[in-house]
Specification:
five-stranded antiparallel sheet; OB fold (Dihydrolipoamide Acetyltransferase, E2P); single chain; mainly beta; 5 strands; 84 residues; globular
């Protein structure tokens, strides 16, 4: 079975506490809104590994592009280079 990948826009509602780190990059709890073309916006509470260089840019109101898994929509593939 093939997993469909869906392009979405993400809006950050809340950035919470650091839950840990991987290779120096913090893992943060976040509340997001996922906007998928043709569907109503939907909330998503998850944890994200955030590159240290992008940490200051991730705050409430930030929007960025991502790709989600059609089978597991809480799995995000974020192009961090687009977050400026």
């Amino acid at each position: 079975m093939s997993d469909e990948r869906i392009a979405v826009t993400i809006q950050v509602l809340y950035v919470g506490q650091q839950q840990g780190a991987i290779d120096g990059d913090p893992i943060l709890e976040v509340d997001l809104v996922v906007v998928e073309r043709g569907n109503p916006p939907r909330p998503l509470a998850t944890s994200l590994r955030v590159p240290m260089a992008k940490l200051a840019l991730l705050r409430a109101g930030t929007e960025f592009s991502a790709v989600i898994s059609g089978e597991r929509p809480s799995v995000l593939d974020i192009d961090w280079s687009g977050l400026t």
